[in-house]
Every structure is written in structure tokens, then in C-alpha cells.
Amino acid sequence: IKMLQTSLRVREDLRRCLEFGYQPELFLREWMPIEPWREFRCILKAGELAGVTQVETSNPGRRAPSPDEARSIADAIYAFFPEFKQACPLETVVFDLVVTPDRDAPGGYAIQVMDLNPFGPETSTGLFRWGANDLDGSFRCFR
Questions:
Q1: pLDDT at position 26, please?
Q2: What is residue 80's three-state secondary structure?
Q3: What are the respective helix, strand and coil percentages of the chain, to the nearest 5?
Q4: Which of 141, 135, 139, 140 is nearest to 44 (CA)?
Q5: Closest CA to 41 of 94, 88, 118
């Protein structure tokens, strides 16, 4: 209830649902603190991974992965993608992941899906740009 009353993001999402006659569904889970550098946004377009970017792009001075970490994170995300694609009924969507160091996982990082977002200009593309033919399948993060 507190989230519905105090979160501008939740309120705006619910307002849009009501405006367009869409029945909203909320999925609640236990809060998990996440260091901003560990959250990545993946852009799925027509069944292909069109780009992977850090979500937090407004403060590059925060801890960024080292080049080796970035390569390992990219490897882990690209290894996880076929599993996501098989489980997701959508061909085009933007989805956020959290990477957690785990030496037993592919690429040394466990991957957890955080949420799904609409594909389009209402969703931030992080270090990519909408409408600029910029979605080239690359992995982008601050280093």
C-alpha cells in the first residue's frame, strides 16, 4: 500500500493503465538492495538481443566494472539470453537483469530477471538511443 501511495513511478504506471483501459497486475517480491553497477537493461527486438547496457547512466562516477568484469558480465548475460528467450512469450521487450558474482555460474555471474518494460521511447535505453539505428547488439557500460 505504501508503494502505491508514495512511489511516483508506480502511481504513473497505474495512471497510464487506467487511462488506456489496461488491467494492471502487480508482482511484489522481497526488497533486495542492488548496487547500481550490477543492474543491466537488455533490449529484445524481433526475437534478437539488440543491446545490453547498464541501467544507471546518470552517475558514471559510481563504481563501474573493470574491463575484465565487464567482459565476464557480458559473457554471462549473453549465455543467459537463450534461457530468457525460451521463457519469454514476447518477441520485443526491454528487460532488466541483476548480475551477482557467482564463480559456479556461467561467466562467473548469476543472472536474475528484475522486470519487463515496454519497448519504445517511454523506456530508457541507457547508453543506446532510440531512433538512431543504434541498437547494434553490443554490450555497453561505463569503464
A1: 73
A2: helix
A3: 30, 25, 45
A4: 135
A5: 94
